[in-house]
Amino acid sequence: MANYVLNGIMGLCVADALGVPVEFMDRNTLADNPVVGMRAYGTYNQPAGTWSDDTSMTLCLADSLSRGLNYNDIMQNFLKWFKKGEFTPFGSAFDIGNTTRQALKRLEQGAAPLECGGNTEYDNGNGSLMRILPLLFYLQSVYGREFYQEDEAFAVIHKVSALTHAHKRSQIACGLYISVAAMLPGEMNLKEAVNLGIGKAMEYYQNQEGFVEELKFYNRLKDKDFADLPSESIRSGGYVVSTLEAAIWCLLNTENYKDCVLKAVNLGSDTDTVAAVAGGLAGLKYGYTAIPQDWLGVIVKREYIESLCNQFYFAITR
Ligand SMILES: [Mg+2]
């Protein structure tokens, strides 16, 4: 069995690192000098191959899930990352989203893990979507390959999102993403796999009180011509709906890992996260060996990340 953990998480990490030097740069500026490979310095003045909070928080979740599902343990890992610089390239966290920062503050003030996440409409940044991927592998190990038929599996997705992002719109984004990601490995045609993933999650949400009202924000993803939308109508800021749309749009409009993540980065704005979310999907679709060697070669602490992926993989396939 292929190591899907490594495919997905390295796909996410490498894409994050591609986006870090140009985060916040707008699309038109990038169009004059597009990203074509790993760059150094830029926005955060970090060397090439430096990954950010997207990867750090993904590693926090993977590490915790390799010991089973424990919401407090996941939150303690997030604190170790933000306060102590664990799960980082160089020993300190250099970026964090507002909603995540506030959730960690509530935890330190004594709130229960599942009470920490922001739940207003303004708490719908992409901060839980960008770190949710490892949960796919855990759910498959517990509930089987058709985990998306289980209400309990969606409840777990929503709780893991709610540690930082508790609004239903963010929870749905995580549910849609995991459902799409689940369909990608294997022989199924890409467009069919994506549509099936979206369809299965939508089927679930359509019968869920409280969630069904939020589905309208995801209407464009249900449209069979979604991939044909022009790039001008694809936003790439930090709003969770935009990030999910942009990632899926990049996946559907390219045919390999490299083109998918470069397309995502060059949309501009929240480059690292849009690329990371797209990169997780592209890693699952095309596999670890499709990630360019020269990009993998500069990833800071590559061996550490890969051994963490392997530890998680062995824990859930044991
Ligand atoms: Mg980041």
Annotation keywords:
318 residues, mainly alpha, ADP-ribosylglycohydrolase fold, 56% helix, 0% strand, globular, binds magnesium ion
Characterize the structure shown.
This protein is an all-alpha fold. It has a single domain (4-317), classed as ADP-ribosylation/Crystallin J1 (ADP-ribosylglycohydrolase fold, Orthogonal Bundle), CATH 1.10.4080.10. Helix content is 56%, strand content 0%. The protein contains 15 helices and no strands. Helix 1 packs antiparallel against helix 3 (53-65), helix 1 (4-19) packs parallel to helix 12 and helix 3 (53-65) packs antiparallel against helix 4 (71-84). The chain is globular, with a radius of gyration of 18 Å.
